[in-house]
Amino acid sequence: MKIFAETERLLLRELLPTDAPGMFALDSDPLVHRYLGNNPVQTIEQSQETIAFIRKQYLENGIGRWAVIQKATNEFIGWAGLKLVREPVNHHVDFYDVGYRFIHQYWGQGFATEAARASVAYGFEVLRAPVLYAIADMQNTASRAVLAKVGLHHVSVFDHEGVPTAWLEARRSSSKIASASYQAFT
Question: Up-side HSE of residue 75: CA atoms within 13 Å toward CB?
């Protein structure tokens, strides 16, 4: 099992097939999918397929979303990290996307900010990416606030699958990464 980053309260590690129950708890919740197209998964097999797809990204791209484990309880609480986006989004292709998703009971506790900050730091410090991007439904003000806290700046609004979507970016040259309480593993 590969650990990519550690923060004060979290371990960010590779997703494993054994994470399927946690992924199902996450992605079967309509609240979690409110700004993601309102299409929660219906079966644990769908969660298993998602994990297999992400594990394939690790092999093909060297990166993919990570399981977020709460250190105090050793529980799967969501996923976070970077994904190399190969298909065109907002006229961009082959870019690193910062993302996260948490089980509803863990919202509002700072975990998204902590995981996103570690993800941005990993992108700049380990991957040496010159720029990182993120997208968020314009109505998802909480997610957009997290992205702003970790250094991504709102650049524009674009239509993503019929939804007004914020396009955000952070550049390594102008980023002030808060590395305190974060450790990357290579």
Answer: 11
Q: What sections of 1-63 are H helices per DSSP?
A: 20-27, 44-61
Residue 183's closest CA among 25, 29, 12, 18? Answer: 12
Burial string for 51-75 (b: 16+ CB within 10 Å, else e) reads beebeebeeeeebbbbbbbbeeeee
pTM exceeds 0.85, yes or no: yes
Q: What strands, in cross-sheet order, belong to the sheet with 75-85?
A: 153-160, 163-171, 131-137, 95-102, 75-85, 66-70, 10-14, 3-7, 182-184
Q: Which fold has domain 3-184?
A: Aminopeptidase (3.40.630)
Q: How many residues in total does the chain contain?
A: 186
Q: Please compute Rg for the chain using Cα positions.
A: 15
Over the stretch 27-72, which tens digit does the pLDDT of each residue have? 999 998 888 877 899 999 999 999 999 999 999 999 999 999 999 9
Nearest Cα to Cα of residue 176 among 99, 107, 127, 124:
124
Read off the pLDDT of each residue in 2-8 and give the average, rounded to a whole number: 94
